Amino acid sequence: MSRKWIVVIIVLLAVVVLGGVGAVGFWQYHEQPEFCATCHIMDPYLESWQASDLGANAHAEYDVTCLECHEPTVEEQVNELVVYLQGDYEIPLRELKYPMEECLQCHEHGSYEEIVEMTADLVETVGANPHASHYGEMECRLCHKMHKESEDYCAQCHAWGFEVP
To answer: Taking Cα atoms as reference points, which of 138, 57, 149 lies closest to residue 99?
Structure first.
């Protein structure tokens, strides 16, 4: 084999190795919350994850990153990029509505009944247990918000005034 071919093979191997390392590095960066804020419309969401008393920050304290809850497919990511480039979006972005089962996968409560039991002492301190609703099981997201202040959903009708963490 001539010296010329050896150089070509070495260069090709170097390109493949560097390309692979670059791809792995990009993929790891892609999984970081800072990557999400590459699009300027995501800045408030990153800020709420990093340094606030919002629900997203509680996840940051446990190193739960964006992609652990927001699991976009490649098709969704491409669509988001197209929508962003076209400017075809509204701010604030549409609130995602995760079912309670997704919350229960990670949080220490195994069931809604356990949440009702865990918060039973609120009857003594504030006069009611918000989880023991006359509506039965309620979705976590109705009160517990991630990227904005949580709210007392029951306050639409009731006046006891919970502060929702």
So the answer is: 138
